[in-house]
Amino acid sequence: MDLLDQLRLDYQRFPADQSYHLYAEAVYFKDPLTAFRGVKRYQAMIDFMARWFRSIHLELHQIEYTSPQEIRTRWTLSWIAPLPWQPALEISGYSQLEHDPTGKIITHVDYWDCSPWSVFCQLWRPIRQP
Fold it and tell me: pTM of the prediction?
C-alpha cells in the first residue's frame, strides 16, 4: 500500500487507528492554533480530540502529490463540542505534508479556510430546533 492509500485510510478512520508509523519521530506539525515537533505530541493532540469531542468526522475531498516529496490534502473536519448545548463546529482547509526519501512524513502543516475566531464563534450559534 502506498503512502496516499494509507493516508486515505487514516482520514476515513480519524481519529481512531491512525498510522503514526508513517511520521518521523521529530515530525513538525503546525496549524493556526499550535505548532510543535514530535510524533508523540501529534498522537497526544489526536487522542485529546478523540477523548473530548463527539461525532468527529474528517472528510477527505482531495489528495495528491504536488511534487515528488510533497502531498496536499483538502478536507473538512466537523465535530460536536463538549458543552451543554452541544454546538456543531466545522473547519475546512488543506494540509501540506512533506516526506523524506524513506517515505516518513517530516512536516504536516494545516491551513484553514477560516480564522480561528470564526471557529470560536461557531460555539455560539443558535441551537437548531427539531
Answer: 0.90
